[in-house]
Design a protein that fits this description.
The chain has 474 residues and is an alpha/beta fold. It contains 16 helices and 26 strands. Helix content is 30%, strand content 23%. A 6-stranded mixed beta sheet has the order 1-2-3-4-5-6, with helices on one face. Strands 7-8-9-10-13-14 form a 6-stranded mixed beta sheet. β8 and β9 form a beta hairpin.
Length: 474
């Protein structure tokens, strides 16, 4: 028996490959099916089932393409009603894979159809639980997402179901069972996930707040709902794609990787009202870019930020990238449902420059230069911190204003076209995204602080305000 976790860091997503005696299953695959097909081929194995733990919100699963290419059966838990052929299992149904069995446990709470898959080895021992978004390491799946798709559901009702699922289905299992969740730290499907991607159930019972046996159902509901921030806007649309089906990834990539000359690219910009997405590194983008382009660098959590900042999944997108990175960009957008990339600029930004087309740039300064400016003119500087509120609350530059990148659109009216703004995030990735959006919206004077807050703090020349937890009065 082989069990392999296939983890994709930029989405904080874990898919799983299980093989026994030439039969294999894949659990919660990403959009691209070829890596799973190649993995099974190395074992001379046939993919028999594609198990889905639920209708995912944060990515488009590859279950449909994978099933079509391999003949595998798609399996969902009870209550699932996909618009394509799939086997809807009942609670405790078992599936034979070689010498091992996999038992479906219906665990509603994150969603109604949420299910876990219990792996039973050839000796009849329960050895692992593929827990989907029901149980994470140090956290549980947020119960507020399905209500954005099913109107009569409430987060309180789903949290109540989640409590019952954890107490009645998962916690009675053996402590030595290995937990394999669908996500790790960085995913928006939970609020406090660990960087670890596996653990034993016994250890989770000791450290995971949601498995605290002293919590009543009412206390659990309050605890699990406290501190949730609004999910990215693309989540409900990904759920619908996973439920209804989607275009083949092969067609999406063929369309998105069409090479366009400078003239063709320029015509497409004007005729399609496409968004120009520049995926080069922040420091490269700052030195020169096509006017109006938005920068979201491939080296960061690219797909998540595309989904967070581009509200329309059907938005036509024209791509500018480093040579050879075009297909990667199209693929990573497709993972979160952005299938309408219509081509890329052949030769990249250099071709645009050589054609003597208009260019733009973002001014940058070092953390040291910023520190000197702050020291001498702090009352006059408009410093915008685009980190999350929790990051800003923990520590921030005295006098800075927090405008989280996630919600930048909510602050647009506060920016004046002719004022000078100094932008920073933690390290420079998010602040350049913000600068590109603001520049495209007509804010002219933007200065990005290279290295972000960490570099500024390291100068020891800038006043930092730290949050101090108030002492409880007894």
């Amino acid at each position: 028996m082989k069990v392999e976790q296939i983890y994709t860091g930029c989405l904080a997503e874990a898919a799983y490959y299980i093989e026994s005696e030439g039969e294999a299953v894949v659990i919660d695959p990403l959009r691209e099916s070829q890596p799973y097909i190649e993995r099974a081929a190395r074992d001379n194995a046939k993919i028999k089932y594609v198990f889905e733990t639920h209708f995912h919100a944060d990515f488009v699963s590859g279950h449909i393409d994978l099933a079509q290419k391999t003949g595998a059966t798609i399996v969902f838990g009870p209550t699932a009603k996909p618009s394509y052929e799939a086997y809807i299992a009942q609670d405790n149904d078992e599936f034979q894979i070689g010498k091992v069995r996999i038992r479906l446990l219906h665990t509603p709470g994150h969603t109604l159809e949420s299910s876990c898959y219990l792996l039973i080895d050839e000796h009849g021992e329960e050895v692992a639980l593929f827990s989907g978004d029901t149980l994470f390491i140090n956290d549980v799946g947020r119960p507020d997402l399905a209500q954005h798709v099913i109107a009569d559901l409430t987060q309180e009702k789903l949290a109540s179901y989640l409590f019952d699922s954890l107490r009645n289905k998962i916690m009675p299992l053996n402590d030595n069972i290995i937990i394999y969740p669908n996500h790790g730290a960085g995913s928006a499907c939970g609020k406090n996930m660990s960087k670890e991607t596996t653990d034993t159930l016994g250890h989770q019972k000791k450290v995971n707040y949601a498995l605290d046996t002293s919590l009543t159902k009412e206390q659990f509901i309050k605890e699990v709902l406290t501190g949730l921030v609004p999910p990215p806007g693309y989540f409900p649309f990904n759920v619908l794609m996973n439920l209804r089906g989607y275009e083949s990834l092969d067609k999406v990539i063929d369309r998105g990787t069409r090479a366009l000359s400078v003239l063709e690219f320029e015509v497409a910009m004007h005729e399609t009202e496409a968004l120009v997405l520049d995926v080069r590194k922040a420091e490269t983008f700052a030195k020169g870019f096509v006017p109006g382009a938005i920068n979201i660098g491939l080296e960061g959590q690219f797909a998540t930020w595309v989904g967070t900042l581009i509200p329309d999944l059907k938005q036509p997108i024209l791509l500018i990238s480093d040579t050879g990175k075009e297909e990667e960009a199209v693929l990573r957008m497709a993972r979160v449902g952005y299938d309408n990339c219509i081509g890329f600029l052949k030769g990249g930004f250099e071709a645009w420059k050589q054609a003597d087309k208009e260019t733009d740039k973002i001014e940058t300064i070092s953390a040291e230069t910023f520190a000197e400016l702050w020291k001498n003119h702090k009352k006059e500087l408009d410093v915008i911190d685009v980190r999350k509120k929790s990051e800003h609350d923990a520590e921030h530059i005295i006098g800075s204003e927090n405008m989280p990148l996630d919600f930048l659109n909510n602050y647009m009216a506060q920016f004046k076209p002719d004022k000078i703004y100094y932008l920073h995030c933690a390290g420079g990735y998010r602040s350049m995204i913000a600068a590109s959006i603001l520049k495209a919206r007509g804010v002219k004077h933007l200065i990005d602080v290279t290295g972000g807050f960490s570099a500024i703090k390291a100068t020891n020349k800038v006043g930092i305000s730290e949050y101090i937890c108030p002492t409880t009065l007894l």
